[in-house]
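Complex 357.
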Amino acid sequence: MRPLIASVDLAAIRHNYALAKRCAPGRRAFAVVKANAYGHGAAAVVAALRDDADGFAVCSVEEARVVREQAPAARILLLEGCFDAEDDQSAAELGLDVAVQGVEQAERLLSARLARPVNVWLKLDSGMHRLGFEEAQVRHWAERLRGAPQVAEVNLISHFACADEHQHALTGEQLEVCLGLQDVAFDHRALANSAAVLSLAPAHMDWIRPGIMLYGASPFAERSAAELGLKPVMTLTAKIIAVHEVPVGDSVGYGASWVAERPSRIGTVCCGYADGYPRQAPSGTPVLVRGHRVPLAGRVSMDMLAIDLTDVPEARIGDEVELWGANVSVDELASACGTIGYELLTRVTARVPRRYQ
Ligand SMILES: *Cc1c(COP(=O)(O)O)cnc(C)c1O
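Predicted structure with pyridoxal-5'-phosphate bound:
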């Protein structure tokens, strides 16, 4: 079997969820498990959190079905709401909470005949301008939806654009817009993503929506997950499958972009960009072998990558290589590649088996 595995530490997810809850005492939390639980496997993650989580959040009815199988009684929020009339029916049948983010969605819901009413989360566009109504429209729709036969609770939801940036002006402005609706009698309010859970107590409201922090990655560029008390969840581990002595002046890999400046020992590792390791990772990006951080050498291929083992002469074929995990954080790798941990985690491909601990 190809020795490449994404190990997922379910106890670490529970730890991170508990940390999110401690940040917002007394509030409830939707554990965000969209995108296959950020690449970790939604069924296993939901099963691990079933007894702890107050609810789950996903981005489609298809994702919600996976959650519902594991958590028959949980609240499950559709973050973008229903995409069509069939979704409206499914949401009612599955007992989902639905965001309502625009006029089309709202009108369609009010013209549907549903098996039972759904909890609605009216989306306020507080400044991100991606989804949602402006304040006056929220007031209008809150009134129209309240008491409609399709609707149980009427709740308020909004989303921050810059909560990950320290004291960004837009965050305060967005919070002000949300607080401008304090006089409307919503059943519940939910504003906070991980960044706001960790750094913006006034935004905690009734329900928080932690995502990335559950998976042990940081929403902030400037603060590491470890500093925040989060435990890493996914470890991507491969093995060295070949070792080559490369003389000075010879190159390694596609494009011959890496050239040996000293007699070098190059290890070939069975993980490539078709597994989700980023092709943009530059030479020098660290991986862990036998407790040592060693640098990538040359371009990442589809199924393999090369590392410079010269400084770890004891390294052998068959040695494990941590591509990311507790020692090389996914955030560190992401920042070396000009992206964010979210993208790397969600891009681990289907051919990488997930193993749960
Ligand atoms: C994905 C998502 C979240 C979770 O965001 P994180 O930054 O991963 O915590 C919260 N709310 C909404 C609306 C989302 O789409």
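The chain has a mean pLDDT of 98.
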